[in-house]
Amino acid sequence: MVGRLDHALAAQAIGWSRRELKAAFHEGRVCAEGKRLTAATPACPGMIVHLVELEPATLEPLPELRVVYEDQALVVVEKAPGIPAYPLHPHERGNVAAAVRARFPDLEGVGDLREAPGLCHRLDLETSGLLLFARTAVAFAALRQAFEARAVGKLYQAVVQGRLEGAGEIAYPLARPLGRGARMVALTEAHQAVRKSWPALSRYQVVAHHGERTCVEVTLVTGVTHQARVHLAALGHPIVGDVLYGGPLASRLYLHAMRLTIPHPLTGALLTVQSPNSLSC
After folding, report:
1. Strand, helix or coil at 13?
2. Cα 215 to Cα 161: distance, rounded to the nearest angstrom
3. Between vectors from CA 46 to CA 40 and to CA 50, what angle results, nearest 5°?
4. Which are the catalytic amino acids?
C-alpha cells in the first residue's frame, strides 16, 4: 500500500465502501498497533490495519424524541438544549441521531455518518430547535445540494445582552485563530493570524426588549460553526448564556433553531417547518 491510507484501503477491495471507510475514520475505528489512524495517514507496505466494529450500547438511555414533521423523504425533530445532535464518540446513545435511528430504521446507511444516518446539518450542544434528517439516499443528495446552494432558510431566535435596535446584516468572515482551540472569531481585523477563514452572512431583526436584554430573530444565510454566536458577539451583544463568547452566565444558551424552509427533495416545492417552542425574552 502506498499513498493516503483511505485511498489505499478503498483500493484493496476489503468489502467496505468509500462512505463506510470515511465514517470509520471519523469515528476513530481504523487502528494499527493499538493507535487510531486518520484518513490522511501514509499507507506503508506491510501495514496491518484493523477496522473496529462498534459494539451495541445498552446502558445509556435514548433521549426523548420529538418529531415535528415526517414524510417518506425526510424527518424533522426538535432537539432539546444540552442533548448532542450526534454521537461524539462510538457507542454513545444519548443523542438525537441515536433516537432518530431507533425510531426510523429505514435511515440506516443514508448519508455520511455511520452513527448518525440521514443527518443533514448540526446544532451545537446547548442550542435547541429543529434538526433535519433525510430518509433516503436520493433525499440526502438533494438536501445536501440545497444546503450547498444556500437554498435552505434557517431562522433562529436568540436573546442577547444589551439593547440592540432595528435590523441589519453581519458579514464578518469567521475563522479559527491560531492557538485558540474550538473558539471562532469574527475577522473584523484583517491582520489576525488564523488557520482558516470562511465567508459568513447573518441577518437580524429585533423582536422585543426586556430590560437590558433583546430578543432577536437571526437568519443564517451561510452555515459556519458558531456563526450566530460569533456574529452577535461581534456587534457587542453576545447571546445570554454564551460564556464562550462573552455572554452572561445563564441556565442555558438562549439560541433556538425555530424555522427551516427547504426545497422538498421529491417535489422541489418549498416546505417550511416551524418549531412548536420558542425562547422567552
Report:
1. coil
2. 9
3. 60
4. 124
In terms of DSSP bridges, do strands 30-32 and 35-36 run parallel, antiparallel, or are they unpaired? Answer: antiparallel
Say yes or no to pLDDT of 194 above 50: yes
Count each helix (H run) and each strand (E run) in the chain, helices first.
5, 15
Q: Quote the DSSP letter at residue 150.
A: T
- pTM reported for the whole predicted model: 0.77
What domains are defined for the chain?
Answer: 5-51 (no CATH), 66-149 (3.30.2350.10), 155-257 (3.30.2350.10)
| Span 185-208, average pLDDT | 82
Distance CA(5)–CA(221), nearest Å, equals 36
CA distance linking residue 43 with residue 1, whole number of Å:
5
Query: pLDDT digits over 135-150, tens only?
Result: 999 999 999 999 999 9
Amino acid at the residue 114? R
Q: Which residues, 6+ apart, have CB-to-CB distance to 201 below 8 Å?
A: 169, 170, 171, 220, 221, 222
Farthest-apart Cα atoms in the chain, separation: 68
Residue 214 phi, psi (nearest 5): -130, 135
Q: What is the pLDDT at residue 9?
A: 78
Average pLDDT, the chain: 87
